[in-house]
């Protein structure tokens, strides 16, 4: 409880908090992560190839049928809801304390909880568009196809998710916004990430504030730079610090 109280004090005295989060934020909502023992990369074997390959630019365009079957089954088939971490961050933004959420997740759960300023480094499953004419297709329409390859209603072209695949660069505007938010923050809270994914993890070098709080079940390269380190569930830590 001493660390929770210290986190409350840091939040109270801060005016420009930024949260940087990874897959661990969403696992408490039932979303599979990628690299853990129970994650996608270590458990999904039915396709005969690694999930990393399926989630590549090349595979998306050369084997769309397999990609969309995988994409629906592991990203769209089950309804998930925001958890305590998402709601605590949305509350901090509502109080005028938190200026931005920077996420490596693509599940839109931060927005579902009420967060307004969210930088989605790896894109989002909430948007799908035709690569030929730009026509958008709703998430509801994509889900209704149940893993079949969508076609553009306007021109018949190929529709893809607005998600950054392997072999693709991050969106420049999103990166610039995230880096700017980090550089202006007076408190950086990092949660649910091992900081092993680059270039996303490299953006933390732009933080020039005084305090870093790190909430992750395993060690990270930033542990020795943190003012506080928690090895607990991120939802419990943020809920207790914000609401209790």
The main β sheet shows up as: 6 strands, parallel
Supply the CATH class of the largest domain: Alpha Beta
Corresponding CATH architecture of the largest domain = 3-Layer(aba) Sandwich
User: What is the CATH homologous superfamily assignment of the largest domain?
Assistant: TPP-binding domain
Please report the number of helical segments: 11
Structural features, described:
There is one protein chain. By secondary structure, the protein is an alpha/beta fold. It folds into 2 domains: 2-30 and 82-122 and 165-243, TPP-binding domain (Rossmann fold, 3-Layer(aba) Sandwich), CATH 3.40.50; 32-79 and 128-163, SIR2/SIRT2 'Small Domain'. 36% of the residues lie in helices and 17% in strands. The chain has 11 helices and 9 strands. The strands form 2 sheets. Strands 3-2-1-7-8-9 form a 6-stranded parallel sheet, with helices on both faces. Strand 2, helix 8 and strand 3 form a beta-alpha-beta unit. The termini are close together. The mean pLDDT is 95.
Which labels suit this protein?
Rossmann fold, globular, 6-stranded parallel sheet, 3-stranded antiparallel sheet, alpha/beta, SIR2/SIRT2 'Small Domain', 11 helices, 244 residues, single chain, 9 strands
